[in-house]
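Aim 2 progress update. The chain analyzed this quarter is reproduced below.
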Amino acid sequence: MVQQNVTTIGGVPQTLFQTIQSYGIDPAPLFEQVGLNTPTPNSNQDRVQSVALQKLWRMAEQVTQDDGFGIRFTAHSNPMTLHGLGFSWIASNTLLDAFNRLVRYYRLISTAGEVVLEEQEATYCVWYKLPVGKGIAAPASLDAAMALFVQLCRFTKGAQFSPSRVELHRNTPKNREAFTDFFNCEITFNGEENRLYFSKEVLREPLPSANEELARVNDQVVIDYLKVHDKADVLSQIRAIVIDLMPSGTPSQDDVAKLLHVSTRTLQRKLAEKHTSFKAILEGIRQELATSYLKGAERSIAEVTYLLGFTEPSNFSRSFKQWTGETPNEYRARHISS
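Predicted structure tokens:
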């Protein structure tokens, strides 16, 4: 069963409301029946209970008599559906960067399940994993998630963009045409999982909408949102605190534990349960932000050093070369000239 404390971003019921309306059906009674408020223009930042939302997905498919309802949902979606994550996606350097953001910040969309990005021999596989068996989650909600991931790509790559292959866990739909028309590629129904496959070359191509500064700003919007709304996600909490503290110097594990109101030992245990450590998180954040900052020319090396909590540019340069094999100046010159 879907857990009672699982929540979903308010942009999803907003878009559901519009999708139901597109069939000429009044969505308000359906929302009232499952105990959800009628969405307002400002409710995209709210959280709604996923149990009620799953009931709504099933009712929507029943009243519209369309098992392609989840695909139609994407026609009414836009980057605002996903709050700051939608905008940081648009501003990403590549679709690979964008999918990595989706993996990292998926809990903004829903606190159920996860998105996994797997590198294979010739492709990247985006795997949408849920902690429930087949038939528990409404098929339309899974269809919408998979289609929305593709629609996000089309916001940046154009309407003709398609995956190389799609695998869906759902049974073969009656409205199969809605799926084939939308995905425009080979589709496997009754699959083992919900997966999208993309060529490596396509995901690594630079995006015309790339804007490092805008991406970083919206990443912070997402981090701040999760800090408030997702207390259960210790990694998001730590990430937000570390980024806040870094300009004042290298944050310590003790500092972060105090701000989380837990003991250092408790923090270590929670991280061990996530198969990571404070050192790994700190290094990962520094490397991620360093490469992001240095792809543009807005900040000097000295400023980047300060923002990442290093005391000396020489210490930062040494760490950066360990991460990338290049000095900060070499890395910046290569990316600005490309």
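The first strand starts at residue 7 and ends at 9. Strands lie at 7-9, 47-49, 114-119, 123-129, 165-167, 186-188, 194-199. These observations will guide the mutagenesis experiments scheduled for the next reporting period.
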